[in-house]
Design goal:
The chain has a single domain, classed as TIM Barrel (Alpha-Beta Barrel). 41% of the residues lie in helices and 19% in strands. It has eleven helices and nine strands. A nine-stranded mixed beta sheet has the order 7-6-5-4-3-2-1-8-9. The C terminus is likely disordered.
């Protein structure tokens, strides 16, 4: 069986490790078969990772991805070749992902700690019958943002949504990679994709590093990066503005 972490950030955005360091860490310190680089609102680090991977000799595959900021919240776009525009409504964002043959994943669903899709939005998409407007899977994560809503997500998915469940760590630190991961039959990115599309994946994980293990200084630095290094790509002001406009009578 193969294992994949489908939600990893880099220092190009608000993560703490550059691409070469990240690839070497996965090779030397994990048993993962596939990883996906999913930076906020840019494809550049994922393309860089694929190019560096092609020049090296690694035992795992790399999937090109992007964590896209839609107006309603984040969505992971996997197996894409062109960047997906940010700060659009969710339905055209999903159409743009599927138009280029990508997969659309719901990351850290229902979480109030980060920009996440809520129950009404998820069910709106599930009820949609328009071609290309769909979710291909939902993330069951181990990050602080995902943990606080995990039990509710598992219950709603079992009872109502019935989306394929995948694991992704939402790693911003090297030590977090693989803390939640996807188990699938095979070992390659193409076999992983086939398993997701067939709904034949399982979610597994390892203990999430504690704050003491990560180090307070590193955590504070990462939070600063999240606030200062990528505000334009993360779209804070436009997204917050849309929430305010929708809340007004």
């Amino acid at each position: 069986m193969g294992t994949a972490d489908l939600h990893i950030h880099t220092s190009f955005g608000d993560g703490m490790a550059g691409v070469p360091e990240l690839l070497d860490y996965v090779e030397e310190h994990t048993g993962l078969s596939v990883i996906a680089i999913t930076e906020h609102d840019t494809l550049a680090p994922a393309l860089e990772a694929r190019a560096a991977h092609a020049r090296g000799s690694y035992r795992f595959d790399v999937v090109v991805g992007e964590e896209v900021t839609a107006i309603e919240g984040h969505v992971l776009a996997l197996f894409i070749e062109e960047p997906v525009p940010s700060l659009k409504r969710l339905e055209p964002t999903l159409e743009a992902i599927h138009k280029q043959g990508g997969l659309a994943i719901v990351p850290h669903p229902l979480s109030w700690l980060t920009r996440s899709l809520g129950t009404r939005v998820i069910e709106r998409v599930i009820a949609e019958k328009r071609d290309g407007v769909r979710f291909d899977a939902i993330e069951i994560g181990a990050s602080p943002a995902a943990r606080q809503s995990r039990a509710k997500v598992l219950r709603l998915n079992a009872e109502r949504w019935r989306l394929t469940e995948i694991g992704g760590s939402d790693a911003h630190f090297l030590e977090v990679i693989g803390a939640s991961h996807t188990v699938f039959a095979g070992s390659t990115a193409l076999e992983l994709r086939a398993a997701i599309e067939a709904g034949k994946t399982e979610v597994a994980g390892a203990p999430y590093p504690t704050m003491r293990q990560l180090g307070l200084r590193k955590i504070v630095h990462q939070q600063w990066r999240g606030m200062m290094a990528t505000p334009r790509r993360m779209g804070w002001l436009p997204t917050i503005g849309s929430f305010v406009r929708r809340a007004l009578p």
